[in-house]
Design goal:
The protein is an alpha+beta fold and 156 residues long. The protein contains five helices and three strands.
Length: 156
Amino acid sequence: MRLTFIVALAAFLLDQASKWIVVRWLDLATRQEIAVLPPWLNFRMAWNRGVNFGILSSFDARWLLIAFALAISAAVLVWVARDHGARPPMRVSAGLLVGGALGNVVDRLIYGAVADFLNTGLPGWGNPFSFNLADVWVFAGAIGLVLFGGGKAKGA
């Protein structure tokens, strides 16, 4: 479990630090957009009150989404704690998912919405959606749990 907690803490801190630097220090909340490496990477401010791509943003689902994220995080931690043969990739994946989920929970508690600011595109194609590091951690952690979860280490 130690590895899971270390990864979760690192993911959480990197997410929150990136949001503070970009949204507050670079003042993206006011500027709304900063060209970084156009069209590949831009900072574009988006306050997401829903889930991915703004789903559920038409009504105040903040407390429901906070409860859901906390329940999923707790379930993942219990699952990893009970799987004494969990390999390091599973533990890292769980830490990424939990750290990312908690990063977005903190946003919802502080701002009432998740601070999304990473925007990627391609030449000739503009992406209308923004995301944040917590979203990357949750996605990578979920994929990792699918790939590495449930297996026993050799000799266990």
